[in-house]
Specification:
With 248 residues, this protein is mainly β. It has two helices and eleven strands, in the order ααβββββββββββ. The strands form two sheets. Strands 2, 3, 4, 6, 7, 8, 9, 10 and 11 form a nine-stranded antiparallel β-sheet that branches. The chain has a two-stranded parallel sheet with strand order 1-5. The longest helix has 20 residues. The N and C termini lie far apart (109 Å).
């Protein structure tokens, strides 16, 4: 009888120890960290295109301002093959741009202000996606009218060709200054940069512009579904007809 009780006590102790060492499924869940979801980086005021640059810089000291607004539907939708979740379902951002130009050079500052950022949360431990719990952002003019995300400081230069020549070559460098909260999905919380080579030209009524470069993004290595995977290659091409208005 004592031996049976001892065996029972030992088995109970082993069971308690094992359950204490093995974390429950709910405890194993990790909270996902946010990052900058916005991927539209408008050109500097006077750039002539939404993203590209026409490289028509010329003249003495000048400047410009620009206001750009964009909207994205479900810009961040994560899945593990079974569950699907729109962590950021709606995002609207206004970009304020300020530029100073001189001869072939342009120095500018872009400030992004989220107008609306909202999405879906995971519901309980059984609603996790890829082992992660997601908390959706909730930003709006009513709750956070003075919120600013990462600031972008840039410099553009025309290196070859005239302001209206058939072929112009330029370069651009941009630095992202972190600001905001990762939980709002408006910043990586790290410094980032962009380096681009630019081309542009005018041939009669036809005008074109292109770019190739790299987005140096330190945020890497996170297994969270939908998270950035380090630096990215940038490329693009645009073209169209330019119609003069009036006598000029």
């Amino acid at each position: 009888m004592p031996s049976s009780r001892a065996h029972g006590a030992l088995a109970f102790a082993i069971f308690v120890l094992a359950t204490g060492l093995l974390p429950s499924r709910a405890e194993a869940q990790q909270q996902a960290q946010g990052f900058a979801v916005e991927r539209f980086y408008p050109s500097a005021p006077g750039g002539g295109w939404f993203v590209m640059d026409d490289l028509t810089l010329h003249g003495g000291l000048g400047g410009g301002m620009a206001l750009t607004t964009g909207y994205a539907m479900k810009p961040l939708r994560v899945t593990d093959g079974v569950r699907h979740l729109a962590v950021v379902s709606d995002q609207a951002v206004t970009d304020f741009g300020f530029a100073v130009t001189y001869d072939r050079w342009r120095l500018y500052l872009n400030l992004d202000a989220p107008l609306l950022t909202q999405g879906q949360n995971t519901q309980g431990p059984n609603g996790a996606v890829g082992g992660y719990q997601f908390t959706a952002p909730s930003l709006g003019l009513g709750t956070s009218p003075d919120t600013l995300s990462d600031a972008r400081v840039g410099i553009d230069a025309r290196l070859f060709g005239g302001p209206r020549s058939p072929f112009r070559l330029g370069a651009s460098a941009q630095l992202f200054v972190p600001n905001g909260n990762r939980s709002d999905y408006d910043t990586d919380g790290t410094w980032r940069s962009m380096l681009r080579g630019l081309v542009a030209g005018d041939m009669g009524l036809f005008t074109y512009a292109g770019q190739i470069g790299v987005h140096i993004r330190p945020l890497d290595g996170s297994p969270t579904p939908g998270s950035p995977r380090g630096s990215e290659l940038l490329f693009g091409l645009a073209g169209g007809a330019r119609f003069p208005l009036g006598r000029g």
